[in-house]
Amino acid sequence: MQEYAELTEAEAAEQLSAWFAGEVAGARTAAHSVLVQSGGDVRAVVESGLLAPGACVFAADAHVVAAGPAELPEGGGPRAVEVEGGVEYSGDELVMSGNLYVQVFDYGSLPYLSVAGPTVVRVTGPEDHEAFLDDADRALRDGVWSEGLAHPSVQLADLTTLVSPTKDTGLGRLYVTADGQVRTGVGGQDLGPVTAGSEALRAALDAGAGDPSLGSVVPDDVLRAGAAERPWLGRYAKALEVRRRLAPKYGTDVRVSGFGGRFTEGLPAHPVESADEVLLVEVLGDFLAVRTHDYRLFRLGKGSARLLEIFSALGATSPLGATSSPDAANSTDAAHAAATAARLLDMTDDEARDAHAALTARLGLAGAPAATTGGA
User: For residue 342, what pLDDT is reported?
Assistant: First the structure.
Protein backbone atom coordinates (compact mmCIF):
# COMPACT_ATOMS: atom_id res chain seq x y z
CA MET A 1 0.00 0.00 0.00
CA GLN A 2 1.36 3.41 -0.92
CA GLU A 3 1.90 6.15 1.59
CA TYR A 4 -0.47 9.07 1.20
CA ALA A 5 -0.68 12.47 2.80
CA GLU A 6 -2.69 12.84 5.96
CA LEU A 7 -4.80 15.93 6.55
CA THR A 8 -5.44 17.38 9.96
CA GLU A 9 -9.09 17.78 10.89
CA ALA A 10 -8.81 21.56 10.45
CA GLU A 11 -7.20 21.18 7.01
CA ALA A 12 -9.86 18.70 5.92
CA ALA A 13 -12.64 21.02 7.12
CA GLU A 14 -11.08 23.90 5.18
CA GLN A 15 -10.83 21.74 2.05
CA LEU A 16 -14.46 20.70 2.41
CA SER A 17 -15.58 24.30 2.85
CA ALA A 18 -13.70 25.31 -0.31
CA TRP A 19 -15.26 22.36 -2.15
CA PHE A 20 -18.78 23.45 -1.23
CA ALA A 21 -18.09 27.06 -2.26
CA GLY A 22 -16.48 26.02 -5.52
CA GLU A 23 -13.18 27.70 -4.70
CA VAL A 24 -10.18 26.13 -6.39
CA ALA A 25 -6.56 27.10 -5.85
CA GLY A 26 -4.21 26.41 -8.72
CA ALA A 27 -4.73 25.17 -12.27
CA ARG A 28 -8.18 23.76 -13.03
CA THR A 29 -7.06 21.20 -15.60
CA ALA A 30 -7.27 18.45 -12.97
CA ALA A 31 -9.31 17.87 -9.83
CA HIS A 32 -7.96 19.35 -6.60
CA SER A 33 -10.93 18.16 -4.53
CA VAL A 34 -13.51 15.45 -5.19
CA LEU A 35 -16.53 14.31 -3.23
CA VAL A 36 -17.68 10.80 -4.08
CA GLN A 37 -21.32 10.07 -3.33
CA SER A 38 -21.96 7.08 -1.11
CA GLY A 39 -21.85 3.99 -3.30
CA GLY A 40 -19.65 5.63 -5.92
CA ASP A 41 -16.66 3.85 -7.41
CA VAL A 42 -13.73 5.37 -5.54
CA ARG A 43 -11.15 3.19 -7.28
CA ALA A 44 -12.37 4.42 -10.67
CA VAL A 45 -11.85 7.98 -9.46
CA VAL A 46 -8.30 7.25 -8.35
CA GLU A 47 -7.48 5.51 -11.64
CA SER A 48 -9.25 8.01 -13.90
CA GLY A 49 -6.34 10.38 -14.37
CA LEU A 50 -8.55 13.22 -13.16
CA LEU A 51 -6.74 13.88 -9.88
CA ALA A 52 -4.13 16.59 -9.49
CA PRO A 53 -1.08 15.76 -7.35
CA GLY A 54 -2.09 15.98 -3.70
CA ALA A 55 -5.81 16.08 -4.54
CA CYS A 56 -8.24 15.71 -1.65
CA VAL A 57 -10.79 12.92 -2.05
CA PHE A 58 -13.81 12.79 0.27
CA ALA A 59 -15.30 9.30 0.18
CA ALA A 60 -16.84 6.63 2.36
CA ASP A 61 -14.22 4.16 1.11
CA ALA A 62 -11.27 6.39 1.91
CA HIS A 63 -8.97 3.37 2.27
CA VAL A 64 -9.28 2.78 -1.49
CA VAL A 65 -7.63 6.14 -2.13
CA ALA A 66 -4.64 5.06 -0.06
CA ALA A 67 -4.32 1.91 -2.16
CA GLY A 68 -4.16 3.88 -5.41
CA PRO A 69 -1.41 3.85 -8.06
CA ALA A 70 1.77 2.15 -6.99
CA GLU A 71 3.92 5.08 -8.07
CA LEU A 72 3.27 8.45 -6.52
CA PRO A 73 2.96 11.34 -8.98
CA GLU A 74 5.24 14.33 -8.61
CA GLY A 75 3.74 16.51 -5.91
CA GLY A 76 2.36 13.59 -3.90
CA GLY A 77 -0.49 11.15 -4.02
CA PRO A 78 -4.15 11.87 -3.25
CA ARG A 79 -5.21 12.68 0.28
CA ALA A 80 -8.16 10.74 1.63
CA VAL A 81 -10.85 11.97 4.01
CA GLU A 82 -13.52 9.56 5.19
CA VAL A 83 -17.09 10.84 4.96
CA GLU A 84 -20.52 9.32 5.44
CA GLY A 85 -23.97 10.56 4.47
CA GLY A 86 -25.01 12.77 1.60
CA VAL A 87 -25.32 16.33 0.30
CA GLU A 88 -27.91 16.13 -2.48
CA TYR A 89 -31.17 16.71 -0.63
CA SER A 90 -32.40 19.24 1.90
CA GLY A 91 -32.00 17.70 5.34
CA ASP A 92 -29.04 15.53 4.33
CA GLU A 93 -26.07 15.28 6.67
CA LEU A 94 -22.44 14.68 5.82
CA VAL A 95 -20.24 13.28 8.57
CA MET A 96 -16.50 13.79 8.14
CA SER A 97 -14.03 11.54 9.94
CA GLY A 98 -16.76 10.52 12.36
CA ASN A 99 -16.87 13.76 14.32
CA LEU A 100 -17.68 16.75 12.08
CA TYR A 101 -21.35 16.89 11.15
CA VAL A 102 -22.41 19.14 8.28
CA GLN A 103 -26.12 19.66 7.66
CA VAL A 104 -27.35 20.54 4.17
CA PHE A 105 -30.49 22.56 3.39
CA ASP A 106 -32.05 24.26 0.39
CA TYR A 107 -31.81 28.05 0.15
CA GLY A 108 -35.55 28.46 0.68
CA SER A 109 -35.17 27.01 4.18
CA LEU A 110 -32.68 29.70 5.20
CA PRO A 111 -35.12 32.04 7.04
CA TYR A 112 -36.42 29.16 9.13
CA LEU A 113 -33.19 27.40 10.07
CA SER A 114 -32.17 26.83 13.65
CA VAL A 115 -28.42 26.54 13.23
CA ALA A 116 -26.85 24.02 15.61
CA GLY A 117 -23.53 23.45 13.84
CA PRO A 118 -21.82 23.59 10.44
CA THR A 119 -24.54 24.15 7.86
CA VAL A 120 -24.45 24.37 4.07
CA VAL A 121 -27.24 26.06 2.13
CA ARG A 122 -27.64 25.05 -1.52
CA VAL A 123 -29.54 26.52 -4.44
CA THR A 124 -31.56 23.49 -5.55
CA GLY A 125 -33.89 24.99 -8.17
CA PRO A 126 -35.18 28.16 -9.84
CA GLU A 127 -37.14 29.24 -6.76
CA ASP A 128 -34.02 29.05 -4.61
CA HIS A 129 -32.09 31.04 -7.22
CA GLU A 130 -34.79 33.70 -7.28
CA ALA A 131 -34.71 33.90 -3.48
CA PHE A 132 -30.92 34.33 -3.59
CA LEU A 133 -31.25 37.21 -6.06
CA ASP A 134 -34.05 38.78 -4.01
CA ASP A 135 -31.83 38.76 -0.93
CA ALA A 136 -29.00 40.32 -2.92
CA ASP A 137 -31.28 43.01 -4.34
CA ARG A 138 -32.58 43.86 -0.86
CA ALA A 139 -29.05 44.18 0.50
CA LEU A 140 -28.13 46.49 -2.38
CA ARG A 141 -31.24 48.62 -2.17
CA ASP A 142 -31.87 48.83 1.56
CA GLY A 143 -28.74 47.55 3.27
CA VAL A 144 -30.87 44.76 4.77
CA TRP A 145 -29.08 41.41 4.73
CA SER A 146 -30.12 37.81 5.14
CA GLU A 147 -29.45 37.08 8.80
CA GLY A 148 -28.91 33.40 8.06
CA LEU A 149 -26.04 34.08 5.65
CA ALA A 150 -24.27 36.14 8.32
CA HIS A 151 -24.16 33.21 10.73
CA PRO A 152 -20.53 32.07 11.06
CA SER A 153 -21.58 28.41 10.83
CA VAL A 154 -23.60 28.82 7.63
CA GLN A 155 -22.00 28.53 4.20
CA LEU A 156 -23.65 29.24 0.86
CA ALA A 157 -22.67 26.53 -1.61
CA ASP A 158 -21.71 27.17 -5.24
CA LEU A 159 -21.25 30.87 -4.60
CA THR A 160 -18.67 31.23 -7.36
CA THR A 161 -21.16 29.80 -9.86
CA LEU A 162 -24.01 32.01 -8.68
CA VAL A 163 -21.83 35.09 -9.06
CA SER A 164 -19.94 34.17 -12.27
CA PRO A 165 -21.87 31.53 -14.23
CA THR A 166 -19.98 32.36 -17.43
CA LYS A 167 -16.58 31.70 -15.87
CA ASP A 168 -14.80 28.54 -16.98
CA THR A 169 -14.82 26.31 -13.92
CA GLY A 170 -12.47 23.65 -15.25
CA LEU A 171 -12.14 20.33 -13.45
CA GLY A 172 -10.80 21.74 -10.19
CA ARG A 173 -13.79 20.60 -8.12
CA LEU A 174 -15.70 17.43 -8.91
CA TYR A 175 -18.65 15.47 -7.60
CA VAL A 176 -18.95 11.79 -8.56
CA THR A 177 -22.42 10.28 -8.21
CA ALA A 178 -23.25 6.79 -7.00
CA ASP A 179 -23.75 5.65 -10.61
CA GLY A 180 -20.36 7.03 -11.64
CA GLN A 181 -21.34 10.28 -13.35
CA VAL A 182 -18.93 13.19 -13.00
CA ARG A 183 -20.15 16.72 -12.30
CA THR A 184 -18.46 19.97 -11.32
CA GLY A 185 -20.97 20.39 -8.48
CA VAL A 186 -23.77 18.52 -6.71
CA GLY A 187 -26.38 20.22 -8.89
CA GLY A 188 -24.23 20.17 -11.99
CA GLN A 189 -24.71 18.66 -15.41
CA ASP A 190 -23.39 15.15 -15.97
CA LEU A 191 -20.17 15.33 -17.97
CA GLY A 192 -19.95 11.56 -18.43
CA PRO A 193 -18.93 8.45 -16.51
CA VAL A 194 -15.74 8.57 -14.50
CA THR A 195 -14.56 5.50 -16.43
CA ALA A 196 -14.49 7.60 -19.61
CA GLY A 197 -11.19 9.05 -18.45
CA SER A 198 -9.86 12.55 -18.05
CA GLU A 199 -9.54 13.46 -21.73
CA ALA A 200 -13.17 12.63 -22.55
CA LEU A 201 -14.45 14.49 -19.51
CA ARG A 202 -12.34 17.54 -20.29
CA ALA A 203 -13.70 17.50 -23.83
CA ALA A 204 -17.28 17.33 -22.51
CA LEU A 205 -16.60 20.29 -20.26
CA ASP A 206 -14.96 22.28 -23.06
CA ALA A 207 -17.94 21.61 -25.31
CA GLY A 208 -20.12 23.69 -23.01
CA ALA A 209 -19.84 27.34 -22.10
CA GLY A 210 -19.11 28.63 -18.65
CA ASP A 211 -19.69 26.86 -15.37
CA PRO A 212 -22.10 23.87 -15.40
CA SER A 213 -22.02 23.40 -11.61
CA LEU A 214 -25.74 24.21 -11.24
CA GLY A 215 -26.78 23.09 -14.70
CA SER A 216 -29.16 20.34 -13.60
CA VAL A 217 -31.11 22.52 -11.14
CA VAL A 218 -31.20 26.04 -12.67
CA PRO A 219 -31.39 26.74 -16.43
CA ASP A 220 -28.18 28.21 -17.76
CA ASP A 221 -29.91 31.22 -19.31
CA VAL A 222 -31.55 32.04 -15.98
CA LEU A 223 -28.22 31.92 -14.14
CA ARG A 224 -26.54 34.08 -16.76
CA ALA A 225 -29.34 36.64 -16.85
CA GLY A 226 -29.37 36.97 -13.06
CA ALA A 227 -25.65 37.70 -12.97
CA ALA A 228 -25.61 39.93 -16.05
CA GLU A 229 -28.31 42.16 -14.57
CA ARG A 230 -26.30 42.45 -11.36
CA PRO A 231 -22.65 43.19 -12.16
CA TRP A 232 -22.10 43.86 -8.47
CA LEU A 233 -22.81 40.25 -7.39
CA GLY A 234 -19.10 39.57 -6.94
CA ARG A 235 -18.94 42.48 -4.53
CA TYR A 236 -22.01 41.12 -2.75
CA ALA A 237 -20.33 37.73 -2.33
CA LYS A 238 -17.27 39.35 -0.74
CA ALA A 239 -19.52 41.37 1.56
CA LEU A 240 -21.35 38.21 2.64
CA GLU A 241 -18.06 36.61 3.64
CA VAL A 242 -16.90 39.73 5.49
CA ARG A 243 -20.16 39.88 7.46
CA ARG A 244 -19.88 36.17 8.28
CA ARG A 245 -16.34 36.66 9.60
CA LEU A 246 -17.27 39.71 11.64
CA ALA A 247 -20.39 38.16 13.17
CA PRO A 248 -18.75 36.36 16.13
CA LYS A 249 -17.27 39.64 17.42
CA TYR A 250 -19.65 42.30 16.13
CA GLY A 251 -22.95 40.55 15.49
CA THR A 252 -24.98 41.44 12.41
CA ASP A 253 -25.14 45.23 12.85
CA VAL A 254 -22.65 45.78 10.03
CA ARG A 255 -23.01 48.48 7.37
CA VAL A 256 -21.19 47.91 4.07
CA SER A 257 -20.32 50.79 1.78
CA GLY A 258 -22.31 50.58 -1.45
CA PHE A 259 -25.14 48.51 0.00
CA GLY A 260 -27.99 50.65 1.21
CA GLY A 261 -25.93 53.79 0.64
CA ARG A 262 -22.50 55.24 1.34
CA PHE A 263 -20.77 56.78 4.31
CA THR A 264 -20.18 59.90 2.21
CA GLU A 265 -22.99 61.86 0.57
CA GLY A 266 -22.81 62.49 -3.16
CA LEU A 267 -21.13 59.24 -4.21
CA PRO A 268 -22.65 56.52 -6.42
CA ALA A 269 -25.03 54.74 -4.08
CA HIS A 270 -24.41 51.25 -5.48
CA PRO A 271 -21.10 49.38 -5.89
CA VAL A 272 -19.02 50.37 -8.88
CA GLU A 273 -15.84 48.90 -7.41
CA SER A 274 -14.47 45.55 -8.58
CA ALA A 275 -15.20 42.48 -6.50
CA ASP A 276 -11.59 42.33 -5.31
CA GLU A 277 -11.26 45.90 -4.13
CA VAL A 278 -11.07 46.71 -0.44
CA LEU A 279 -14.42 46.73 1.38
CA LEU A 280 -15.36 49.46 3.83
CA VAL A 281 -17.65 48.60 6.72
CA GLU A 282 -18.98 50.33 9.81
CA VAL A 283 -19.51 48.23 12.93
CA LEU A 284 -20.65 49.64 16.24
CA GLY A 285 -19.30 53.07 15.36
CA ASP A 286 -15.93 51.76 14.14
CA PHE A 287 -14.82 51.98 10.52
CA LEU A 288 -12.90 49.02 9.08
CA ALA A 289 -11.20 48.45 5.75
CA VAL A 290 -11.16 44.78 4.73
CA ARG A 291 -8.72 43.43 2.17
CA THR A 292 -10.78 40.93 0.25
CA HIS A 293 -7.98 38.61 -0.86
CA ASP A 294 -7.07 37.68 2.71
CA TYR A 295 -9.84 39.36 4.76
CA ARG A 296 -7.36 41.26 6.89
CA LEU A 297 -8.97 44.08 8.88
CA PHE A 298 -7.67 47.62 9.30
CA ARG A 299 -9.27 50.07 11.71
CA LEU A 300 -9.70 53.54 10.22
CA GLY A 301 -10.77 56.91 11.46
CA LYS A 302 -13.94 58.30 9.91
CA GLY A 303 -11.98 60.77 7.77
CA SER A 304 -9.70 58.06 6.37
CA ALA A 305 -12.69 55.82 5.69
CA ARG A 306 -14.44 58.58 3.76
CA LEU A 307 -11.27 59.38 1.83
CA LEU A 308 -10.81 55.75 0.77
CA GLU A 309 -14.49 55.47 -0.07
CA ILE A 310 -14.35 58.54 -2.32
CA PHE A 311 -11.38 57.27 -4.30
CA SER A 312 -12.83 53.75 -4.53
CA ALA A 313 -16.35 54.79 -5.51
CA LEU A 314 -15.07 57.18 -8.15
CA GLY A 315 -12.92 54.53 -9.77
CA ALA A 316 -9.48 55.71 -8.74
CA THR A 317 -8.31 52.70 -6.72
CA SER A 318 -6.92 49.64 -8.47
CA PRO A 319 -8.33 46.18 -7.63
CA LEU A 320 -6.21 44.15 -5.26
CA GLY A 321 -3.71 42.03 -7.08
CA ALA A 322 -4.18 43.92 -10.35
CA THR A 323 -1.40 45.50 -12.34
CA SER A 324 -2.21 49.18 -12.58
CA SER A 325 -0.99 51.65 -15.13
CA PRO A 326 2.03 53.79 -14.08
CA ASP A 327 -0.09 56.79 -15.04
CA ALA A 328 -2.98 55.83 -12.74
CA ALA A 329 -2.35 58.84 -10.49
CA ASN A 330 -2.77 61.13 -13.49
CA SER A 331 -5.98 59.56 -14.73
CA THR A 332 -9.19 61.50 -15.06
CA ASP A 333 -10.82 59.33 -12.38
CA ALA A 334 -8.01 60.00 -9.90
CA ALA A 335 -8.16 63.72 -10.57
CA HIS A 336 -11.92 63.75 -10.11
CA ALA A 337 -11.63 61.70 -6.89
CA ALA A 338 -8.95 64.03 -5.52
CA ALA A 339 -11.06 67.10 -6.31
CA THR A 340 -14.13 65.53 -4.71
CA ALA A 341 -12.20 64.52 -1.60
CA ALA A 342 -10.70 67.99 -1.33
CA ARG A 343 -14.15 69.58 -1.49
CA LEU A 344 -15.83 67.20 0.95
CA LEU A 345 -12.97 66.78 3.42
CA ASP A 346 -11.68 70.36 3.45
CA MET A 347 -8.22 69.83 1.95
CA THR A 348 -6.38 70.59 -1.27
CA ASP A 349 -6.30 68.21 -4.22
CA ASP A 350 -2.63 67.43 -3.59
CA GLU A 351 -3.29 66.77 0.10
CA ALA A 352 -6.07 64.37 -0.87
CA ARG A 353 -3.76 62.52 -3.29
CA ASP A 354 -0.98 62.30 -0.71
CA ALA A 355 -3.31 61.12 2.04
CA HIS A 356 -4.77 58.48 -0.27
CA ALA A 357 -1.31 57.29 -1.32
CA ALA A 358 -0.26 56.91 2.30
CA LEU A 359 -3.48 55.12 3.20
CA THR A 360 -3.34 52.63 0.34
CA ALA A 361 0.31 51.93 1.11
CA ARG A 362 -0.62 51.20 4.73
CA LEU A 363 -3.33 48.80 3.59
CA GLY A 364 -0.96 47.07 1.18
CA LEU A 365 -3.15 47.76 -1.83
CA ALA A 366 -1.66 47.01 -5.23
CA GLY A 367 -1.22 49.92 -7.56
CA ALA A 368 -1.29 52.60 -4.90
CA PRO A 369 -0.57 55.94 -6.61
CA ALA A 370 2.61 57.73 -5.72
CA ALA A 371 2.42 60.74 -3.43
CA THR A 372 2.63 64.07 -5.24
CA THR A 373 4.77 65.84 -2.69
CA GLY A 374 6.54 62.97 -0.94
CA GLY A 375 4.88 63.69 2.37
CA ALA A 376 2.22 61.42 3.86
Answer: 94
> How many CB atoms sit inside 10 A of residue 248's CB?
10
State how far the Cα of 169 lies from the Cα of 160, in Å rounded to an integer: 9
Average pLDDT, the chain: 87
pTM score, whole prediction: 0.88
* Average confidence (pLDDT) over 101-128: 96
Q: How far is CA 174 from CA 16, 96, 129, 160, 180, in A?
A: 12, 17, 21, 14, 12
Helix (H) or strand (E) holding 163: helix 159-163
d(CA 102, CA 119): 5
CB 186 within 8 A of CB 121: no
What was the pLDDT predicted at 209? 76
φ, ψ of residue 270 in degrees (nearest 5): -105, 160
Higher pLDDT: 97 or 237? It is 237
Query: CB atoms < 10 A from the CB of 187, how many?
Result: 23
Alpha-carbon torsion, ordered 109, 111, 115, 117, to 10 deg: 60
CA 242 to chain centre: 11
Contact of 194 with 180, CB cutoff 8 Å: yes
Helices then strands (H, E): number in the chain? 12, 14
d(CA 259, CA 236): 8
Positive or negative: CA dihedral 97, 214, 53, 45 = positive
Edge-to-edge order in the sheet of strand 192-193: 154-156, 119-122, 100-106, 93-96, 79-85, 51-59, 31-36, 173-176, 181-183, 192-193
Using an 8 Å Cβ cutoff, are 166 and 227 in contact? yes
